[in-house]
Structure formats: structure tokens, C-alpha cells
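hey so u asked for the seq, here:
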Amino acid sequence: GGERAVAAQTAAVVAAPVALVFLLALLWFHSVGIATARQLVAAITDPRLPAQERLNLLQRAHHHWNIGGQEVAEQAQQIAYRLRDGRDPETPQAFLLARDLLKQELERAPNDARLWLFYASLLEQIGDTARAQEAYQKALAASPNKQQFLFAYASFFIITGRLDNAEEVLQRAYELEPSYDEAARNRAAIMLLRGKDKEEAEAFLLAHTGGDEQEASKLFVAALEASGRWEDAARARESALGSSSDAQAYLGAAEAWLRAGNVAKAREVLQRMQTDLPSAAGIATAALQQVDALASSTIKDIDSYQQRNE
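ran it, C-alpha cells below
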């Protein structure tokens, strides 16, 4: 029991920082540029960086959010959120500075819907859920027919456990575009959170995709992740790996195992990636090194904590 608890604590602390390596790879794949990606990741992981510089990173992420493609924007935003997972004392200060900066910008541009959305997401990440909900509502008031905003708001309700509210927001999204995949994914996630059988959610997604099993399978994995069923998602991602899989598929499976608390399985996937994808072996090696280093330091921290409290 004690060993499992330590393993779970280790995996929980390891998972978020290791995701930086995965995000770096995703940024490469989405053509943000190697230099930019390295700079962003270095800014987050370097504990010597002053809080003001970390704030500058958030501003750059906001810039990407406004001008980049959808997937690039999402990755840039997620990189900014990784500041929350830093282990140095300047990280909370950086988020408070970011919050104040965005608040000042909103005073100058109170009808900027995207700025309200970014502000809401930031507040959600630091745990200020009441103000986050207000910010989401202001984003939707400024742009009521933006599906992206509706999905973000629905995800907020899912995370905070208010499934009735999430379903109501998703219904609004469906009225705009019933065939949109993200709405279907979130509805399937709610089905899983409500205790419905996996088979029922899978059948719903299969009908949504018009019988496309491969696309329905992708959406089902996304629904598992959105509902927090990381072990099921990890197994599904790993079982789908094959000769046609790209590096992103391997990294996604490894991250899912980490979030499920299974560091050993994540390492297995990354080792397999080294063999199966020689062109991406460097990325896999870097991810493995990061996993090993973080796991080692985390175990030492847990041991030290236990010794102090024995």
C-alpha cells in the first residue's frame, strides 16, 4: 500500500513537467519553429528565470493565441499554464502578475472576447473558479456564437463537476453546428462521468461519425481523457500504435500513462518509440531522460518528507 502511494505521488508530480517535452514535440509538429519552441520550454523549466521573464512568456503565448492556428494556439496556451506546475517560489508570483496584466488589458478593451477567454482560463488554472466563471460569461457575452468559447465553458463545468451546466452549454454548441467533433467528445465524456457504460458512449460516437470506426475511436479516447479515465485512455492509445503511427501518437500514449500514474508503462512506450521511429529517437530520448530525472528527484523529496514526519 505504501509503495503504491509513493508511486502515485511520484507519477502525479512527474506527469505535468514531463508534458513539457511532449508539448515541445507538438510545437515542432505544428510548425511554430524549433527556436521558438526551445525558448518557450526553456523559459518554463529554468528556475533561474525571473518572474518578469515568465510573465513575458505568458504575453507571448497570448500573442500566439490571437494570431496562430487553432492547434498552435492551444499548445501555446497550455505551455503558459505549465508555469503553474513549476517548483520554484517565483511561479505563483508570475501568475499573479499575469492576472493583473490581463485585468489591466481588459479595462482598456472590455469587449475583447478572446482576452476574456484567456483571462478565464488563467483564473481557472490558479483555482479562482468564481471569477473564472464570470470571465467565461463575459467572453460569451462578447461573442455568443463562438463554439470554441462554448466548449471551453463546458469543459470548465465538467472539471468543476457541474455536469448539468456542461450539458446545457453543449446543447447551445450543438444548435450552432451539430456535426462538430468537440461537442460530441464532450457529450461522450459527460456520459462516462455520469456512470454510463463505455459501450453506450462508443455507440454514440460511432453514430456521430457516420460509422467511421477510426474517427469514433479517436473521439472516444479524447472523451476518456476529458472524463479523467486516464488508464483506459492510455490502454486505448497504446493499443492503437502501429506501423503508421507518428511521434505524436507515441507521445500521447506515454503522457496518458503518466497521468494514469504508471511511470514504467510510459517509459516502455518511449523506448518503443526510439525503436519504431528512428527519426524521432532524439525526442523520445529527451523525454526518457526527463522522466528519469524527475522521478529520481521526486522520490528523494517523498523520502525526505516521510523521514521528517515519522
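Confidence is low (pLDDT under 50) at residues 2-38, 64-76, 83-91, 298-310. The radius of gyration is 20 Å.
lmk if thats what u needed
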